[in-house]
Design a protein that fits this description.
alpha+beta
Amino acid sequence: MSTLFDLEMTVQAQHIDRLGHVNNVVYVQWMQDVATAHIEQLGLGIQHYLELKHAMVAVEHQVQYRKAAFQGEQIILRTWLSRIDALYSVRQYVFYRPQDQSILFTGSTKWACVEIATGRPKRMSPTFTHAYQPINTDQNPFDFSTMNISA
């Protein structure tokens, strides 16, 4: 069973746009960053993808920007898997600012399993289906009272 995965980061100057807050495309990059960190923690990093000759690729994003983030702020990027089948998984995200207990962003990505050489859909191998499991339904991913921060 997969768990919630938290990654702490500090908003840097390069994340800020001309309006003085984090640029919207940065949030999408953070989605990729926290997903990559999570799969590494699950034992399925890029090296494993290459060895297995198949990988998960993003096919759809849904995002909701709730509040602005600013340079110097500490942010928690949280992700988890909410659904999986033979070809697809759905990964959810919530970005949280502990300073004022604000949810800044929510999103989801639908990922498809593909053969690396051809880009064609491929059923997930047992290695993938074992690692990519949804969180327990009794877990509340919006509860930040306990965090498991990864470096």
